[in-house]
Write a structure and sequence with these properties.
It is built from 13 helices and 14 strands. It is an alpha/beta fold. The protein folds into two domains: 2-130, Response regulator (Rossmann fold, 3-Layer(aba) Sandwich), CATH 3.40.50; 176-361, 3-Layer(aba) Sandwich (Rossmann fold), CATH 3.40.50.180. A hairpin with a 4-residue loop joins β10 and β11. α2 packs parallel to α3 and α3 runs parallel beside α4. The longest helix is centred in the middle third of the chain and has 17 residues, at 114-130. The termini are far apart.
């Protein structure tokens, strides 16, 4: 039985989330809290397997409560996020602080959208409850003094310092990198991209399963912490080295070979795709555009999106890397390409940036 504590200042949301979760015989909501302070007491009392945590609450907000959870009793936390720019920025901050994923708050007393997230919510809770939780890297390092630990609660960020990869010497033979990622992805993508030097010789395309309201703030946040340029992809723009292009939420991202250049394409087709953006669509387009110049990278995520596309990429002579089981929030997407025999290397997220750098030159 998976025990869950639900923390939200809205009585409707507490009831809605509890009802959705309690429909599953393997999940039990053991307590509900109205704010961060109450939530912390309930978490200490019940020691749940998973916590759902609202961001905007009175007395103590979600980000403050999350900092206390990660410092005192680290465990998997799902943030309840509004689909607004402000909600996106707070959610991305929460994932940097250690939250594993988020639930879109597209519910209201007059909305029928509750059905859209019900299955996804239960699936996420069950998957992350089974995983061995890895707190943020900064919290895995022993604190030098108790004052250091307490001061971390009040800091705006507890992310680890950037580490620059050592650039190899030699000829660049892979100059297009395609990344597919889903649940638990934002911190993983930030860890990988923030390690690259400003003169990174390849361009990067990223299909991250994320709502449309989130991808712009996600790209902006990454651009602020990375040496390379990171942006939300725009249809028809030229594909350039040293730049990472984030697929807009709800739309597919492709690479297209023109006569003398590579272009970034953003479109709604195929409309029937299960995920938008789709890692399969991205990987296949990269494979067809540049063949052996392509490097496919599959990071943490539910399901198997990316497997078919990586298969095409391998047929065309490209190389593929997969995140390992131990460092994935959910070992679904990487496992799919590993089980299919497509992964040339299986790596911890802490080693992925150096492996990408090496793969460009070898």
């Amino acid at each position: 039985m998976i025990h869950v504590v639900v923390v939200d200042d809205s009585a409707f949301m507490r009831k809605a989330i509890s009802t959705m979760l309690d429909k599953d015989p393997d999940i039990k909501v053991v307590a509900v809290g109205r704010n961060g302070e109450e939530g912390l007491e309930l978490i200490r009392k019940h020691n749940p397997d998973v916590v759902t945590l609202d961001i905007e609450m009175p007395r103590m907000d979600g980000l403050t409560a999350l900092r206390h959870i990660m410092m005192e009793m680290p465990k998997p936390v799902l943030m309840v996020s509004s689909l607004t720019t402000e909600g996106a920025e707070a959610t991305l901050k929460a994932m940097e602080l250690g939250a594993v994923d988020f639930i879109p708050k597209q519910l209201s007393k007059v909305s029928l959208d509750i059905i859209k997230i019900e299955d996804d919510l239960r699936a996420k809770v069950k998957l992350i409850a089974k995983r061995k939780f890895r707190p943020p890297l900064s919290l895995r390092r022993p604190a030098t003094t108790s004052r250091t630990a307490s001061s971390a609660l009040g800091r705006e960020s507890v992310a680890a310092p950037k580490r620059l990869s050592t650039r190899p010497t030699g000829r660049v033979i892979r100059d297009v990198i395609a990344i597919g990622v889903s649940t638990g992805g934002p911190p993983a993508v930030q860890k990988v991209l923030s390690a690259f030097p400003a003169d990174f010789p390849a361009g990067i395309l990223i299909a991250q399963h994320m709502p449309a309201a989130f991808t712009g703030p996600f790209a902006k946040r990454l651009d602020g912490v990375c040496n390379i340029h990171v942006k939300e992809a725009e249809h028809g723009e030229r594909f350039m080295p040293g730049t990472a292009y984030i697929a807009p939420g709800g739309r597919h991202l492709r690479l297209t070979q023109r006569v003398s250049r590579l272009d970034v394409d953003v479109s709604d087709e195929p409309k029937e795709a299960l995920y938008k953006p789709s890692a399969n669509v991205l990987m296949e387009s990269v494979a067809l555009a540049v063949g052996r110049r392509a490097l496919g990278v599959i990071l943490t995520g539910m399901g198997n999106d990316g497997m078919e596309g990586v298969g095409v990429l391998k047929e065309k002579g490209g190389k593929a890397l997969a995140q390992n089981d131990a460092s994935s929030v959910v070992y679904g997407m990487p496992k799919a390409i590993v089980d299919a025999g497509y992964a040339d290397e299986i790596l911890d997220i802490d080693d992925m940036s150096d492996a990408i750098m090496s793969s460009i030159y070898t």
